[in-house]
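The protein record filed here.
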Amino acid sequence: GPHFSFTPAVSLMIHCDSQAEIDHYWDVLTAGGDPAAQQCGWLTDRFGLSWQVTPRDWEQMMNSPDHAASQRAMQALMKMKKLDIAALQAAYDGR
């Protein structure tokens, strides 16, 4: 109701296995949401709830012993709204 609202301090995560899955959840959850709140795989839905829509392999990329690869992937992610699995993997691989 009007007395309570969500904050980005709480978000729900969806780990996706494919770009099609990311696209599906992104399209459904951003409908009627706040476009200004779309950044780095995060979005706010029409109810004000924050979501993270990420590739399932993202955590593995970030925890890789290859820190340079992790940094490249993070730099690519910082430029995105909806995450692009192929672009993140290419950055991670140094392509």
Q: What stands out?
A: The chain is about 40% helix and 15% strand. The domain at 11-93 is CATH 3.10.180.10 (2,3-Dihydroxybiphenyl 1,2-Dioxygenase; domain 1). The longest strand covers residues 11-16. The chain has a mean pLDDT of 95.
